Automatic annotation (TrEMBL), chain A:
It comes from the Bacteria. It holds the Pfam family V_ATPase_I. This is V/A-type H+-transporting ATPase subunit I. The keyword Coiled coil applies. It comes from Muricomes intestini.
From TrEMBL, chain B:
Belongs to the V-ATPase proteolipid subunit family. It is a multi-pass membrane protein. The keyword Amino-acid biosynthesis does not apply. One of its GO terms (molecular function) is proton-transporting ATPase activity, rotational mechanism. Keywords: Ion transport, Membrane, Transmembrane, Transmembrane helix, Transport. It is found in: Membrane. InterPro entries: ATPase_proteolipid_c-like_dom (IPR002379), ATPase_proteolipid_csu (IPR000245), F/V-ATP_Csub_sf (IPR035921). It comes from Muricomes intestini. One of its GO terms (cellular component) is proton-transporting V-type ATPase, V0 domain. The keyword Membrane applies. Residues 11-69, 93-151 form the V-ATPase proteolipid subunit C-like domain. The chain crosses the membrane at residues 60-78, 90-111, 131-156. Its main location: membrane. This is V/A-type H+-transporting ATPase subunit K.
Length: 671, 158
């Protein structure tokens, strides 16, 4: 209904109760800590940065361990599980986990270490596999690559580029030098490399190698002191061993998955403690006492006071906020309107001195949304889906819950407008009856069919728009009255109402309107005169009064004329409401395109199958795209046209000191 | 001569669809490139950027609506084709032009605006509501064109 009134609460207590009091405040979660006291010789702040970072590190470690567990022993999550929200954990379970936090932390460390070892093993396997790959060409060699040779001979292993045969090598060698006596063995040859060994007499070794080098022979880059085939089988054994270790690790981590719940609570525990220490670091503390101060919603102060003052030696002081202080904003609305708090938040929370527009906006929001979607069947689907999700996941997050509530009501409104305009999956009933049963059934619209009388609906859209805008202007007037700015109220609100109402009265009997509406409206002369005078007086008033802050008369009139020019703004604002008609038509026409396409198969079994498939896919698509359109354009009508008349936003949200958990909500103490 | 009237009318329906469809394809493409970039950094924003990407797609649908209404008006959908004079055919063609031409250009502009709005979502996901408003502003003019095309087509007597 409104922006909640905030009060400043200050608690001064003994240091020995510090921990308990802070925990109590945190678990109640109603106070936004905000200190006005500066440090002086008696009150000092404590440095808690170290403690805080160690808690945050512990929380991060638990999070990481959870991620690793999710990788090794995944828990299946359904698509809707993100809607389920955090689970509720009772205090007993919570404290039992906290008691064995040491063991759990050790587990988290163990999980991390195992994961690291597994990664190392995997890297090692990759490395060994590379070595095996480079060994492959030498496999048929029966001696190690660094074989010394016999008493009189030497073996020189090496590679040459190109796929060569023995003869090729001999030829090349002969080109270089004649009298060398060598024995060449090709070990293996590939597309562009040949692996070979050259045997020669020991005393000729240097010369031979020189000659070989000149024909492009090079020694292998890595040499293993083992017979290649043996080396390969050794390495394979090593890979096998590493693989076994990896599967052992996988098993061990999967076995540790039973700690998942505990780790979640542990992570939350450290996160909550970290936040407590953050607050602790801000508190001014003297030798024996400490001070906590912050904003508390006025309705909650008594509760906080009661829960503290009886049990501890402390002073709890509640005072109203000072004039210049900008309080954080917390909205409170009834069940119907609270759904659209998210929409207001998206634009900006009410700033200082502004009213909460949620309640009034929520009615228009639901009304316009229904008009844009305007199909009874889509409305039913939307409401039923949102309703089921709301019932099935009572603990879903606040933001999603609000949206679901909002769309539930929007669905009801869509159903209403669908019945008014006679849209049930577009013209599905008529088409089905005609194609498959050979009958003519038309579901009559309660009001009228927009496709047949678009001009009529256009006029109504403008009418709704004028009402919407007038309400916005009225709200601005209400804020002026609340602030006792009567002059502003008269000049900016009353004069505009006079001008606009006068212009409307003049427009209605005109020929232009008659040609659009196709009915002439005739007012009695007195009303016509009234309209004329209202418009003239309003316009004159605005011309004279808009620039009332200026002393210079010419400037004042110029400002008035400029303000009067805003009438074009009003015109475009009202025209903007034609989107209600356009989007409503879009839903209906695309739906009938789908129905028509589906029915092209005619009256046969294949025809029915085609129809069913086209119907399901087509209407899902149409509903999705028009839901998006209705959402976007309803937002626009609220943000630009409606809020533009009176609302600026710019407030700061209320962030209470509370147990900001990630995985589970901890039940509040009932004592 | 009478056959030519039908040709003009059909040309109108075609122009409404292909101009606005081309615009939407281009607009959605521009926004899609920006969206893909965001996903490569942060896949959790998929739903938000997808909505942004879809915004310039509506012009194509508006063209489709006018195309469909025109086709059923001139009797090409079910039932025999109506007898249309050259004058009426040209009127239908003219009525179809707003949604086609405005659709073409507004969808491209909206695509660019959507790409910028996707940039907002990438950096400040909580400002989704405001970011979405900028592309929606562009769309207003496509809606106005749709409205005039629709009113004009349904007002032509055949």
């Amino acid at each position: 209904m409104a922006v909640l009134q905030m009060q400043r609460m200050s608690i001064c207590a003994l240091k020995r109760d510090r921990k308990v009091i802070l925990e109590k405040l945190q678990s109640m979660g109603v106070m936004e800590i905000n200190h006005i006291l500066e440090e002086d010789e008696d009150f000092h702040r404590m440095d808690t940065a170290n403690a805080r970072s160690s808690f945050e590190k512990a929380a991060a470690m638990a999070d990481q361990a959870l991620d690793i567990l999710q990788y090794y022993a995944p828990v299946k999550q359904s698509m809707l599980s993100s809607l389920a929200g955090k689970e509720l954990v009772d205090r007993d379970r919570y404290s039992s986990v906290v008691q064995k936090s040491d063991v759990l932390l050790k587990t988290a460390r163990r999980i991390q270490a195992l994961d690291k070892e597994s990664a190392e093993k995997k890297a090692a396997i990759l490395k060994i596999e590379n070595s095996i790959e480079s060994l492959k060409p030498w496999l048929s060699l029966g001696v190690p690559l660094n074989f010394e040779g016999t008493k009189h001979t030497v073996m020189i292993p090496g590679v040459m580029s190109g796929m060569l045969t023995r003869e090729n090598v001999y030829e090349k060698l002969a080109e270089q030098t004649q009298e060398l006596d060598v024995d060449i063995h090709i070990i293996s040859a590939e597309q562009d490399t040949t692996y070979l060994t050259v045997l020669c007499l020991r005393e000729m070794a240097t010369e031979v190698e020189e000659a070989l080098r000149s024909i492009g022979f090079a020694r292998p880059s890595s040499v293993i002191g083992q017979v290649p085939a043996d080396a390969k089988s050794d390495m394979e054994k090593e890979i096998e061993k590493a693989g076994e270790r990896i599967s052992e690790i996988e098993k061990e981590i999967s076995d540790l998955a039973v700690n998942r719940e505990g780790l979640k609570i542990l992570s939350d525990y450290y996160r909550v403690r970290g936040e407590k220490y953050e607050v602790l670091g801000e508190l001014p503390q003297s030798e024996r006492t400490f001070l906590v101060s912050g904003y508390v919603p006025a309705g909650e102060t008594a509760k906080v006071k009661k829960s503290l003052s009886g049990k501890f030696d402390c002073v709890v002081d509640v005072e109203e906020l000072k004039e210049e202080e900008e309080a954080p904003v917390l909205l409170k609305n009834n069940k119907f309107s609270s759904g659209s708090e998210g929409i207001v938040e998206a634009f900006g929370l009410p700033g200082k001195g502004e009213i909460d527009p949620t309640t009034i906006m929520s009615f228009f929001y639901v009304f316009f949304f229904g008009m844009m979607l305007s199909d009874a069947a889509y409305g039913v689907i939307l409401s039923v889906v949102c309703g089921i999700l709301l019932l099935k996941f009572p603990r879903m997050g606040r933001g999603i819950k609000q949206n679901m509530q909002l769309f539930f009501w929007c669905g009801i409104s869509t159903l209403f407008w669908g019945i008014m305009f006679g849209g049930y999956f577009g013209d599905a009933i008529t088409i089905i009856a005609r194609v498959f049963f050979g009958r003519d059934i038309v579901v009559p619209a309660i009001w009228f069919v927009p496709l047949d009388e678009p001009m009529k609906l256009l006029i109504y859209c403008m009418l709704f728009g004028v009402i919407h805008l007038f309400v916005g202007l009225g709200l601005k007037g209400y804020m002026y009255l609340k602030d006792k700015k009567y002059m502003d109220f008269f000049c900016d609100i009353v004069l505009w109402y006079m001008l606009l109402v006068g212009l409307l009265i003049m427009l209605l009997p005109s020929e232009l309107f008659a040609s659009i509406a196709q009915t002439a409206i005739v007012f009695p002369p007195a009303v016509n005169a009234l309209g004329k005078w209202l418009a003239i007086l309003g316009a004159l008033g605005i011309l004279l009064m808009s620039g009332r802050g200026r002393k210079n008369f010419g400037l004042r009139i110029a400002l008035g004329a400029y303000d009067l020019y805003n009438i074009s703004g009003w015109l475009s604002d009202v025209l903007s409401y034609s989107r209600l008609l356009a989007l409503g038509l879009a839903t209906g026409v695309i739906a009938s395109v789908i129905n028509q396409m589906g029915s092209m198969g005619g009256k046969s079994i294949t025809g029915v199958i085609i129809f069913v498939i086209a119907f399901i896919i087509g209407h899902l698509f149409n509903m999705a795209i028009n839901l998006l359109g209705a959402y976007v354009h309803t937002n626009r009508l609220q943000f630009v046209e409606f809020f533009g008349k009176f609302y600026e936003g710019g407030g700061r949200a209320f962030h209470p000191f509370k147990e900001n958990t990630k995985y589970a909500d901890i039940e509040e103490e009932t004592k | 001569m009478n056959e030519l009237g039908m040709v003009y009318a059909l040309l109108g329906a075609a122009a409404a669809v292909f101009l606005s469809g081309t615009g939407s394809a281009k607009g959605v493409g521009i926004a899609g490139q920006a969206a893909a970039g965001v996903i490569s950094e942060d896949p959790s924003k998929f739903a938000k950027v997808l909505i942004m990407q879809l915004l310039p797609g509506t012009q194509g649908l508006y063209g489709l609506i006018i195309g469909f209404v025109t086709l059923s008006k001139i009797g090409l959908l079910g039932g025999g084709a109506a007898d249309i004079s050259v004058k009426t055919g040209l009127m239908v063609l003219g009525a179809c032009l707003p949604v086609g031409i405005v659709g073409l250009f507004s969808a491209i502009s909206q695509g660019k605006t959507s790409a910028a709005a996707i940039g907002v979502v990438a950096k400040k996901p909580d400002q989704f509501g405001k970011a979405m408003l900028f592309p929606a502003m562009v769309e207003t003019y496509a809606i106005l064109a749709l409205l005039i095309s629709f009113l004009a087509v349904s007002a032509i007597q055949i």
